Amino acid sequence: MAEIPLSLAEKTFILHGIDADFRNDGRSRTHYRCMELETKLMDQVHGSARLRIGNTDVLVGVKVEIDTPYPDSPGDGKLEFFVDCSANATPSFEGRGGENLANEISNVLALAYQSPDAMDLTQLSILPHKKCWKLFVDILILECGGNLFDAVAIAVKAALYSTEIPKVKCATLDGGEADIALSDDTYESVKLDTTNFPILVSLYKIGDSCVVDPTSEEEMCSSASIVISVMPNGRISSIVKMGYGSVHPTTLSKTLDMGTKVGIELNNEIISALKREDELGLNREIIGFLR
Amino acid sequence: MPNDSKRINGPDATVPYSIYTNLNSESSELLIKNQLQFRVDKRKHNEFRKMFIRIGVVSQAKGSAYVEMGQTRVICSVFDPREIPNKAQYSTQGELFCEFKFAPFASCKRKGHQQDAEEKEYSLIMQRALEPAVCRHEFPNFQVDIYALVLDNDGSALSTAIMAASLALANASVPMFGIVTAVTVVIYDDLFIIDPTYKEEALCLKTIKKLKPVNHGIIMQAMLSQHDQISEFFLTGSMDINFVNSSIDILSKTSNEIYPVLQEALRKSILKMIKKKNQQEK
Amino acid sequence: MDGDLICIPGQRLCISDKVNVPGQGTYEKLGYIYAKFAGVVKVLKHDDTCSISVHGMIDQSIVPAPGDIVTAMVTIVNQRFCKCTIKCIGDIVLSRPYRGILRKEEVKAVGKDATEMYKSFRPGDIILARVLPMTEAHTYQLSTAENELGVVIAHSEEGIAMVPVSWTEMQCPKTLIKELRKVAKIVPEEVALLDSA
Question: Where would I find the Exoribonuclease phosphorolytic domain in this sequence (chain B) (predicted)?
């Protein structure tokens, strides 16, 4: 990740602020920064979303293609995440620099969506054993200002929420070969069942307490963080520890409780925001990205 | 293993025949729970398998360890510090480089020679689990290479590899803050099953679509038992937060039970080396 | 020895106070001394303190540190510097070679500007050098600006080990051709060792 040099005095200042539950930008420990979220802003993809939180800017595009299902799960579709840490964000991402971080993010996303409780892949099936939909979720990190995991996960959820899969009119087996016909009406499409899609909440341990949504400066003060994926119903679909530090078992328990609480609230907020955007209808003005 | 991209990995269209057997289709909730309720090896749910540990098995490596956890077998070796490749800045903390690999024949499905996404993920988890335990400030600008190879995977391979790596590091005289113990637990409905076998792991991740979500999943926790610190926590599946919290207690307790086993193994290896040294002196 | 105290990493050894002080191979945390290595505990008694130290069973991997005298082999020579691989630190052979660089300015203590690299070193020479403080991440800066440092073993074009004849020249015993080198003035017992080799 982009490294910001911080002096000891600056670190102590941040630490004391967090101890007093009053961070440098005036937030409390469980407060997120303001977010800008917009969906359906690109034409060539089936679903897209752009999220800006603080200085972090993430763009997600979902493309849908037809593939053959895995032999060990013939009734399921496929879902894959690709993260690209663009060198625009920080020069350290240049070449293969951002590769590790990109792998890390896509792995955590794949884990969060792995359970059938979170994402039911059977809704992507067309003809079991023969054909299924494959969702390519491409994530582009345009600017990097801390808290990438949460930002990416929210943008992915919003992009999947806006994803429209073409309607299959008929799918039959013709002499062992799959025969698929799509609807002639391009506006006729199916939406994904996003009720249980998780989001990620990362909690950074700074001093004796944990904060959500850290700025890059705060990230530099933290030795360990916990990334929890929380579903809207409060269930946990994955937990990963990041960073080089370690935590005490009771701290971990407390952190997880706090993360779940924050996760449920954040989920509600995002769903209601997406619904409000839907109500604006098709003719809403598209703001676009990096404005 | 060197990354040889030109190597022909054989046809990748093959599938294990086991997916065509009926065993795979029995996925009703009751059956799964039944299979998990009574373990094949007659263990209790909170009982870990018998361990076999041998330290210093690879003569070429600076330090090495071989750990068996039931049928799961892992060999791990640690090498001398070397300069961090492709790094321009001076880093005050040394780095750990972990490579986790399944032998091609270790699992039910054959693995390729190159690391796949799962193995890369496990390598990173291993690195994060071990980093808090190593005094990295003692070798600035250098990295220590740790290679773990799973010879046979019968569940809990990752936690076994982490323990093997921690023993190998101690054997290589890498300065450490403590020994890392790691335990895997699988959860299904209200069952907590410590140290699962391959089959138990697979059952708990089985995809069943029901109206009411059932707790299921795998948790791996690595711990510095001596200091009561969790160095890595890794969960997949879907469960209630209360289950996670109670499993932290169970996992910590089991870690504390496993720690004496590792301690004893290390003690024996030290005694052996002292004996050898004394003989050489004579 | 049965009397040895054995410890493993992270094991709590004793309380840390005015009497017991943490020594080599240990660390202090929350008022206690812990071991860093798997090995033997040694207690060194001073006047009124005890130094607790832990010695690992294998020597800890050592890396060159500033001020160390190292033995290195010259690999590349050009007008400004020569590159070498460090083989030994003092009398300890390294299990892995480390890269070192010797700049023109660091070859001699006097007449730095007049130094010519090609008249001081050739690839394949074995040199003694001192490690300078590190500036780059990857290469150790070396210096031979002392009488005792410089080329120790060099081979002539015939492939025969040459004998130093002055502080700038070495001679091949077979062809009697003299070659220019920055010769190290070696302390007598090491000369004896080299002759017998």
Answer: 47-175, 178-205
Of the pLDDT bands very low, low, confident and very high (cuts 50, 70, 90), residue A152 is very high
| Minimum-distance CB partner of B209 among A71, A73, A122 | A122
Task: Write the residue in A116, A235, A238 that is nearest to B207 by C-beta.
Answer: A116
Share of chain B above pLDDT 70, in %: 87
Bridge-based pairing of strands B142-152 and B82-83 is antiparallel
- Best CA proximity match to A119, nearest among B213, C55, B218: B213
Which pLDDT band holds residue C1 (cuts at 50, 70, 90)?
Answer: very low
Whether residue B274 and residue C59 make contact (CB cut-off 8 A), yes or no, is no
Q: Which chain C residues contact residue B140 at CB under 8 A?
A: none
Per the prediction, chain A carries an average pLDDT of 87
Report which of B168, B167, B155, B163 is spatially closest to residue B181, judged by C-alpha positions.
Answer: B163
Is there an interface between A and C (3+ Cβ pairs < 8 A)? no
Chain B residues within 8 A (CB-CB) of chain A? 15-16, 19, 24, 93, 117, 120-121, 124, 128, 131-132, 136, 205, 207-209, 213, 216-217, 219, 224, 227-241, 244-245, 248-249, 252
Please tell me which of the candidates B142, B176, B263 has its beta carbon nearest to residue C36.
B176
CA distance C117 to C151: 12
C-alpha closest to that of A151 among A257, A266, A16, A21: A266
Binary contact (B241, A257; C-beta < 8 A): yes
Is A47 part of a structural domain of the chain? Answer: yes
pLDDT at B143: 86
Q: What is the DSSP letter of C105?
A: G
Q: Where are the beta strands (DSSP E) in chain A?
A: 35-39, 47-53, 56-67, 78-85, 125-127, 131-143, 164-166, 168-174, 177-182, 189-191, 199-206, 209-212, 224-230, 236-243
Q: What is residue C151's predicted lDDT score, i.e. its pLDDT?
A: 92
- B48-281 belongs to CATH 3.30.230.70: yes
Report strand pairing: C92-103 vs C140-143. Answer: parallel
Sorted by where each begins, the domain ranges of chain B are 48-281
List, as one string, the DSSP characters of B238-282. EE-HHHHHHHHHHHHHHHHHHHHHHHHHHHHHHHHHHHHHHHHH-
- What one-letter code names the amino acid at A244? Y
Q: What is the residue range of A220's domain?
A: 8-279
Q: How confident is the model at residue A1 (pLDDT cuts 50, 70, 90)?
A: very low
Contacts with B24 (C-beta within 8 Å, 6 or more apart), sequence order: A72, B18
Structural contact between residues C4 and B270, judged by C-beta atoms closer than 8 angstroms: no
The answer to whether residue A53 sits within a structural domain is yes
What's the CA gap between B200 and A160, in Å, rounded?
32
What is the per-residue burial (b if ≥16 Cβ within 10 Å, else e) of B21-34?
eeeeeeeeeeebee
ipTM computed for the complex: 0.86
For domain C5-56, which architecture applies? Beta Barrel (2.40)
CB contacts < 8 A (B, C): 99
Q: Are strands C126-131 and C140-143 parallel, antiparallel or unpaired?
A: antiparallel
Instruction: Please give the full DSSP string across A51-97, using - where no structure is assigned.
Output: EEETTEEEEEEEEEEEEPPPTTSTT--EEEEEEEE-TTT-GGGTTTT
Total structural domains within chain A: 1
CA distance C80 to C68: 23
Q: What is the dihedral of CA C74, C78, C80, C82, to 10 degrees?
A: -10
Place B1 in a pLDDT band, splitting at 50, 70 and 90.
Answer: very low
The residue ranges of every structural domain in chain C are: 5-56, 69-196
CB B27 within 8 A of CB B209: no
CATH of domain C69-196: 2.40.50.140
Q: Would residue A58 count as lying in a domain?
A: yes
Interchain CB distance below 8 Å, A235 and B239: yes
Tokens 């780095």 found at: B95
Rounded CA separation C7/C156 (Å)? 53
Closest residue to B244, CB basis, from A239, A245, A247: A239
